[in-house]
Every structure is written in C-alpha cells, then in structure tokens.
C-alpha cells in the first residue's frame, strides 16, 4: 500500500466526524500557535532591545569611567577616582583599532529660559561626541572645533530639554541661563548646614549660553532618556562653567567614549586601554585600576540572559498547551479504536497484519497532528503579523525599542516537527491497542 | 486440501475450562462444497475460526494446501487469510464508509497490488455476483442480499483456496437467501471454488454435497449427498 493511498484513507477516517476532528485539532492549533507567537515575540523584542541600545548608545562603543579609589584601606564607590583626564582621551585616540574618542565632563544643572526651568545633565563634549554617540542635529548645528578653541558660550539642547523649556518654539538663537552648583572650601567658615560644619560651602553660579542646535530625539522619552541633556564645548565647561580638576590640576573628565574601528575590534580596544591608563596614572603593580573599561557586551549579555529566561517560560507555557492538545489526540484515538473494533477485525480477517493496523492508526494521529500544526503555524503567523502592525516600537528601560516581529523559518520547522512528534506520541498507544486486537473477538464486537 | 488432525480448542483454565472442540478429525477435498451444522454452542463457530486461521487450536494439526498452519505466527496467518481464504459473514461485515467496489478491494490493499489492477479485479468480482451497477454505492444504500453479494465478491476477488461462509443467509429473507446459496453453488460448479458453509438451516445445507454435524465439540456424524 503506497503512502499517498494510506494518507487518503487516514484522511477519510478522521474527517468522517467533522465536529470531533475540529475540536481535537483546536487543542493542537492553540498549542502550536502559542509556540510560534511566544517564540517570535521574545525573539523580536530581544533583538529589538539590542538594536535599540546600539542606536541609543552608538555602535562599537567602549567606554572608560573613573573607578574606585582605595586610600588607607577604605575603598570608595566606583566613579569617585579623580584621575581620568582629557589627555588620557587623547592618548587613547592614538591606540590601534580606535576610530574616534569623545571625552565628556558632566555635571547637574538647572536650565532656565522663557520662564521655564528644568533640572538636567550638562555635558562638556567635543565635536566627535556627535558621531561617536550617533546623535544627529535636527535644528541648527553641533558644537564645532572652533567653539572649543574660543571656549564659546554656546550649547546644544537634547530634544527633551528643548521641549520642556521652549515647548514648540524654535530654541536656536535663544539664550538659556544655567545654574551650576559648586562646592568650594570655605576659608572664613561662612558655610551653612552639614557642609558648613566640615568647612565647605555651596555656591550657585549662573551663566548665559546661546542655543546653537537641537539634537534629534533618540530615546523613548522621559527624564531617564538620553534626550534629557544639555551639551556645551568641553573647554567652555572646564574654564567657564564647572572646572573639574585632578589632584594634579589637570582637566578631569567623567567618561571617555571610545569607538572601535569595527565590532570585532571591540575586545582588542578593551584590552589595550588598561595598560595605557595604568602607565599614565603611575599605578604600581598590585594597585587596583582607578578606572573601569566597559562595553555593551555586559549589557547585551544581561538582555540575552533575561530573554532566554523569558523564552524558557514562554516555551513552558506553550508546552503545557501542547501537552493538553496531545492528550486530546490520544483520547480521540482511543475512542476511535474502540468504535472501530469491528473494522479492525474485518481488516485483519481479510489479511491486514499488525503493522498495517498500527500504521493506519498512527497515520491518522500524525495527520491530526500535522493538520493542527499547519493551521497552528498559520494562526500564529497571523497573530505575529497583526501584532507587528500594532506595535512597531515599545518603550523599555527608557529606551525606544524598535520591535520587528517576524516568524523565523527555524520556528516554523520546529513547530512542524513538534506537531508530527505529538501525533506520533499520542497515537502510538492507541495504534498498538488496535494492532493487538484479537480478530475473532474484534469481528464479533458490536 | 484441508486436513484436521486431533484438533482441540480449550477456552479458560482450570475449573472454568471449556472444551469447545475435542479431538476433531476431518478433511475437505478441493472443489467440494460442504456444510457444517449443529446447535448453538456446539463448537461450529470455533471450528469456523480455526479453519479461517483467525484462531489457533490448543492442540492438533491443521494443514491447508499442504501447509501446516498451527506453527505459524500471527503475521503469517494474516498472509494465509489474505491469499487462501475468503470470508462471508452473517452480518456481511462491510466497511460502512467505503463504497461496494472499495470494500471488494480491501483484501488487495494488504498485498501491494497496484491500484489499477486492484480496481479491475474488484469490478470483475462484482460482475461475477451480478452487482456491476452498484459498484459506487455505499453499503447502507444496498439491500441485505446485495450487501451479502458484495461480501461474496470480496471473499472471491483473489480466488482463494476456500470460501468460508458463516450463516451467510442468517440475516436474509428466504428469497435473498436462495439467491446467495445459488451464487455459492455456481461458484462451486462453474469455477471450482471450495466452499464451506456453516448454517443451521437444513434447506441451505441441502444444497451442499456433504453435511458435517457437530455436537458438544465433536463431529457427531456426516451426511453425504450424491448429486
């Protein structure tokens, strides 16, 4: 008996009772559709987050920030070392595989204009900052090397700051007033509060800056997004706004962004920075680094780990519905074997062997599995497709995550194989029962 | 062609033991048409199942076409049923979802016959029982007599060594019953088929050459008609 013939006979048997077939199929359809949908969702969001982070931070980025310092056995928190300088950035830029370097000094400021004010982060940057961090300017221009040279009192606003302060009005050409808090040593003891007790006092300096540009919106919005920022030339920051110095009096920076010349060069860049900085910072052997070199690998690892957990969970849920679907097939196959006991007897009487009966019932259950699988894949695909029309972006951890949902061929193959497997597993026991029936008893069965 | 030697069939064990057949010896020659009669519970159905290789005896030997069958496994017995035996049952035992011609094709599904050949032979068998015009009908669209004729077509489609008919007229009115037994007689006389009919109807049995009477699991006596 050839296969297409057996399939046809199997189809006729299972389609004899339409309602029963539909209900049995439903279990598998729901299970397989859940698998396709959940796997595609976790995959889509996972890769979307990776893309979103790359876009928000910049590509092929390694960054260096101050580390902890240990003085007289006391270790301070990471970021408290005051040894990272603009010259360090310059030195890093001469390393191989380094494409561009962008040192940034950072402080918190109050921005006032047009009767509005906002508390935000001011960053002193170089012209390279724009390309390294993949920012683009929607309005006006970015900070130029000329601005740095003349330490011009200009600024570029992040999209969030521009909107909060100026609303819909065009900020380019307008003036903003920034309030910068500084802590200085108080020689005359005129400080107040807790700081005063230790001989320190706070001062708020007020400076006027001209807006020369606005950055393109990048993040998912809100205070934690990369759009809540005001950029100034790093030299202006150092000389006019908030001088930050190392104990030796060099210009200090908060972070150095380093763009590697390729994705595969990131590890190399990450490896070569520490020896350089240790030498520049005169660290002795055995002393801890006073800086931290980091890149997206950690962030991406964390994301892929949590996505993996999510897929395991999703797989578990889908697995349960598939189990229920499989039980449904087995149940209906057992009923079918009982109902068709006499048919089995007749077939055996005219010469059907055990394997013929076994394969007949196995084919029926596999057919149900495959049919449910195919419909389930189509339903799951449809669900993924309509979801992708509804959500093209989502906001996650302050990042604008582009969600590109699609059903990968791997998922389809897996779903198909699983549905065939369920058909076999659910059908094997009923098929064996059918094959083992005694023809004499089976043929008398009423 | 058929040799039964000391055939005994015991159901159950110990005190619950039932001796359905007890040391039965008989033979049937090729081209014979015989009937087996006996009251219910006499063991004639058990004998029928053993002759049809649907069941194995507890002891004794059964040789069919010179082949000893009692040592064969289930699959071998299935092959013998397929090639050498045609069954006709009291309640026709057609598969309800299949057409008449598909029912007749059924035995040939299990010996790898090409589809076209299968179909040709099935139509030919239906022609032999006079049902060519009913080939595409489902069993429930046919009368009892017609259904039994389809069953006969199924039994003879592969030209088996023997046709076993278990109360073939039991569910039919006397006119249809007469038609069926006439078909058997014709198959026996014109085509030389060996036919064994189990019945408790003397009228039907009288159409055969020989009647084997069974009682309490033993052959009670035989009647031979010379025709």
Oligomer: heterodimer
Give me the Rg of chain B, rounded: 17 Å
CATH topology descriptor of chain B: Rossmann fold
State the share of residues found in helices of chain B, binned by percent.
25-40%
SSE order of chain A, one letter for each helix or strand? HHEEEHEEHEHEHEHEEHEHEHHHEEHH
Helix- and strand-based class of chain B? alpha/beta
Q: Provide the spatial order of strands within the biggest beta sheet of chain A.
A: 4-5-10-7-9-8
Q: Which of globular, elongated, flat, extended, rod-shaped describes the shape of chain A?
A: elongated
Number of helices of chain B: 7
| Count of strand segments of chain B | 10
Strand count, sense and barrel status of the largest sheet of chain B are:
6 strands, mixed
**What is the CA–CA distance across the termini of chain A?**
28 Å
For the largest beta-sheet of chain A, the strand count, sense and barrel status come to: 6 strands, mixed, barrel
**How many domain units of chain B?**
1
* CATH class value of chain B: Alpha Beta
Count of the domains of chain A: 2
Structure description:
The complex is a heterodimer of chains A (446) and B (227). Chain A is an alpha+beta fold. Chain A has helices spanning 3-14, 18-57, 86-93, 128-132, 145-150, 159-166, 193-197, 234-241, 266-280, 296-339, 341-349, 354-390, 409-435, 439-444, and strands at 61-66, 70-71, 74-75, 98-113, 116-125, 137-140, 154-157, 175-185, 200-215, 229-233, 255-260, 291-295, 393-396, 399-402. Chain A has two domains: 3-54 and 301-444, no CATH class; 82-289, no CATH class. In chain A, the strands form three sheets. Chain A has a six-stranded mixed beta barrel with strand order 4-5-10-7-9-8. In chain A, strands 2-3 form a two-stranded antiparallel sheet. In chain A, strands 13-14 form a two-stranded antiparallel ribbon. In chain A, a hairpin with a 2-residue loop joins β13 and β14. Chain A is elongated, with a radius of gyration of 34 Å. Chain A starts with a helix and ends with a helix. The model of chain A has no long low-confidence stretch (mean pLDDT 86). Chain B has 227 residues and is α/β, with parallel strands linked by helices. Chain B has a single domain, classed as 3-Layer(aba) Sandwich (Rossmann fold), CATH 3.40.50.300. Helices cover 34% and strands 27% of the residues of chain B. In chain B, the strands form two sheets. In chain B, strands 6-7-8-3-9-10 form a six-stranded mixed β-sheet, sandwiched between helices. In chain B, β4 and β5 (67-68) form a beta hairpin. In chain B, α3 packs parallel to α5 (144-156). Chain B is globular and about 50 Å long. The mean pLDDT of chain B is 92.
């Amino acid at each position: 008996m050839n296969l297409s013939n057996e399939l046809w006979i199997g189809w006729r048997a299972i389609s004899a009772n339409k309602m029963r077939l539909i209900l049995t199929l439903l279990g598998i359809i729901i299970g397989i559709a859940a698998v396709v949908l959940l796997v595609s969702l976790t995959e889509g969001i996972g890769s979307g987050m990776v893309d979103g982070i790359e876009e928000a931070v910049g590509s092929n980025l390694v960054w260096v920030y101050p580390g902890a310092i240990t003085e007289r056995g006391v270790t301070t928190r990471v970021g408290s070392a005051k040894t990272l300088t603009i010259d360090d950035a310059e030195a890093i830029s001469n390393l191989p595989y380094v494409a561009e370097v962008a040192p940034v000094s950072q402080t918190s400021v109050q921005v006032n204009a047009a009767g509005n004010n906002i508390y935000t982060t001011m960053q002193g940057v170089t012209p390279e900052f724009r390309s390294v961090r993949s920012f683009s300017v929607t309005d006006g221009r970015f900070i130029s090397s000329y601005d740095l040279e003349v330490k011009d009192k200009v600024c570029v606003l992040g999209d969030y700051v521009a909107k909060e302060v100026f609303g819909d009005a065009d900020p380019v050409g307008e003036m903003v007033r920034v309030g910068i808090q500084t802590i200085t040593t108080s020689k005359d003891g005129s400080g107040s509060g807790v700081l005063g007790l230790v001989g320190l006092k706070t001062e708020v300096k007020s400076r006027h800056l001209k807006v020369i540009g606005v950055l393109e919106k990048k993040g998912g919005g809100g205070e934690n997004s990369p759009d809540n920022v005001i950029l100034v030339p790093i030299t202006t920051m150092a000389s006019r706004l908030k001088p930050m110095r190392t104990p030796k009096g060099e210009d200090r920076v908060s972070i150095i962004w380093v763009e590697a010349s390729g994705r595969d060069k990131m590890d190399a860049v990450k490896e070569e920075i520490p020896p350089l900085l240790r030498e520049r910072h005169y660290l002795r052997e055995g002393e801890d680094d006073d800086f931290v070199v980091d890149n997206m690998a950690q962030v991406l690892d964390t994301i892929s780990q949590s996505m993996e957990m999510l897929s395991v969970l999703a797989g578990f849920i889908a697995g349960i519905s598939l189990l229920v679907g499989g039980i449904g097939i087995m149940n209906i196959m057992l009923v079918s074997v009982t109902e068709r006991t006499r048919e089995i007897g007749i077939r055996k009487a005219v010469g059907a062997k055990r394997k013929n009966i076994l394969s007949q019932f196995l084919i029926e259950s596999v057919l149900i599995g495959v049919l449910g699988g195919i419909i389930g894949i189509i339903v799951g695909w449809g669900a993924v497709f309509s979801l992708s029309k509804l959500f093209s972006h989502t906001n996650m951890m302050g990042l604008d995550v582009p969600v590109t949902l699609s059903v990968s061929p791997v998922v389809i193959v897996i779903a198909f194989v699983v549905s065939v497997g369920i058909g076999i597993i659910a059908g094997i026991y009923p098929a064996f029962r059918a094959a083992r029936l005694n023809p004499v008893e089976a043929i008398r069965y009423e | 062609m058929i040799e039964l030697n000391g055939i005994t069939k015991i159901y159950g064990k110990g005190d619950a033991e039932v001796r359905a057949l007890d040391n039965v010896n008989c033979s049937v020659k090729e081209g014979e048409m015989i009937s087996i009669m006996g009251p219910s519970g006499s063991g004639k159905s058990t004998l029928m199942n053993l002759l049809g290789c649907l069941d194995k005896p507890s002891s004794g030997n059964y040789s069919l076409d010179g082949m000893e069958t009692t040592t064969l496994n289930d699959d071998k017995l299935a092959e013998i049923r397929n090639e050498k035996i045609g069954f006709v049952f009291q309640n026709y035992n057609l598969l309800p979802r299949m057409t008449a011609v598909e029912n007749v094709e059924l035995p040939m599904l299990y010996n790898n016959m090409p589809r076209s050949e299968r179909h040709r032979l099935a139509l030919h068998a239906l022609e032999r029982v006079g049902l060519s015009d009913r080939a595409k009908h489902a069993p429930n669209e046919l009368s009892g007599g017609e259904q039994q004729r389809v069953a006969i077509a199924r039994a003879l489609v592969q030209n088996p060594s023997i046709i076993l008919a278990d109360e073939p007229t039991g569910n039919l009115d006397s006119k249809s019953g007469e038609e069926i037994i006439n078909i058997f007689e014709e198959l026996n006389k014109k085509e030389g088929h060996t036919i064994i009919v189990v019945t408790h109807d003397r009228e039907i049995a009288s159409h055969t050459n020989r009647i084997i009477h069974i009682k309490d699991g033993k052959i009670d006596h035989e009647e031979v008609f010379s025709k």
